[in-house]
């Protein structure tokens, strides 16, 4: 899902910047972006993004605070010998 979102975001950004050649289309895209940013759905999505990044940064901070030297802890092998393909 994140990969798709990245591809769509990249495509949209490229299209947006490429559309500057046509001023009328550029203005139309700007109006659409402003309308989307003013919507309740956009606000809800941005709140969820902020919450998710806050939770993730808190987890990282918590893990880092449990090490003595401030370095990243050694994590267990995600592929135990019995589960290796």
Would you give an account of this structure?
The chain is mainly alpha-helical and 85 residues long. The chain has helices at 2-18, 23-37, 40-65. The protein starts with a helix and ends in a 20-residue tail after the last helix. The model has no long low-confidence stretch (mean pLDDT 79).
Chain-wise SSE layout:
Layout: H1 2-18, H2 23-37, H3 40-65
- Main sheet: strands, sense, barrel: none
| H/E element sequence | HHH
Overall pLDDT level? 79
User: Separation of termini?
Assistant: 25 Å
* Count of helical stretches: 3
Give helix % range: 55-70%
- Helix and strand composition category: mainly alpha
TL;DR?
The chain has 85 residues and is mainly alpha-helical.
List keywords for this structure.
about 80 residues, mainly alpha, 3 helices, about 0% strand
């Amino acid at each position: 899902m994140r990969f798709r979102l990245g591809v769509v975001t990249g495509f949209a950004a490229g299209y947006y910047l490429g559309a500057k050649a046509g001023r009328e289309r550029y203005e139309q895209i700007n109006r659409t972006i402003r309308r989307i940013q003013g919507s309740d759905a956009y606000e809800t999505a941005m709140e969820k993004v902020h919450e998710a990044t806050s939770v993730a940064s808190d987890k990282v901070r918590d893990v880092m605070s449990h090490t003595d030297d401030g370095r990243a802890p050694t994590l267990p092998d995600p592929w135990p010998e019995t589960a290796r393909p």
